[in-house]
Amino acid sequence: LCDIAPDQRATIEKVLADHGVVTVTQISNARRFAFACPALPTCGLAVTESERALPGVIDEVEAELSQLGLADEQFTIRMTGCPNGCARPYSADVGLVGRSVDGKSGEGRYTVFLGGNLLGTRMAQVYKDQVPRSEIVATLRPVLLHFRKHRQPQETFGDFCDRIGLETLSKMEHQA
User: How far apart are CA 3 and CA 142, in angstroms?
Assistant: First the structure.
């Protein structure tokens, strides 16, 4: 909504609240800057879930960030159901790209990209491939821990990942 007269703002906010619409100040930064493509079942190219899976991923990310004291960080999480990248995961701080589905469990597997940025002006790089949906947050946890401990003042998550590089990121997995 735009061009709202200041004297109408409270009325409009009440109508939105009465209908369960939350404002930007009521959601986490992880959810605010997240984006997904429609994927299954509407896209014929999708091999995994995206739009329907991302809210659950964000729930888990929010809990992890809160536990680590990083809930106020601003970063993008973008998820797609195939490598076409319609939600722009390749330039996000955290990009999740659907790659395959486990034949036994039916669980989606994703390539995790790290190191883009909030503005989408830097390309992320492959951190891990074929990560099951249920292990996405566990895969991110070691990097988030090291980000919390070793970031530079005012450094964002994507900037941290880009600065330290993939080789160091991969080593962090075994140090957590």
Answer: 44
Q: Is 64 in contact with 141 (CB distance < 8 Å)?
A: yes
Pull the structure tokens for residue 31: 């959810």
| Helix, coil or strand: residue 40 | coil
Q: What is the mean pLDDT of the chain?
A: 94
**Chain-centre distance of CA 143, in angstroms?**
14
Instruction: Give the angle subtended at the CA of 134 by the CAs of 128 and 140, to the nearest 5°.
Output: 45
Helix spans in 24-110 (H): 29-32, 54-68
Is the full-model pTM beyond 0.85? yes
What does the alpha-carbon distance between residue 133 and residue 148 come to, in Å, rounded to a whole number? Answer: 24
Strand partners, 101: 108
Q: What angle do CA 80, 84, 90 make, to 5 degrees?
A: 65
CA distances from 75 to 11, 32, 88, 107 (A): 31, 9, 14, 26
H helical segments located in 69-156: 136-150
Q: At what angle do helices 136-150 and 54-68 cross, to 10 degrees?
A: 30
Q: What is the pLDDT of residues 127-167, one digit of tens each?
A: 999 999 999 999 999 999 999 999 999 999 999 999 999 88
Distance of CA 97 to the CA centre of its chain: 11
Residue 111 carries which DSSP code?
E
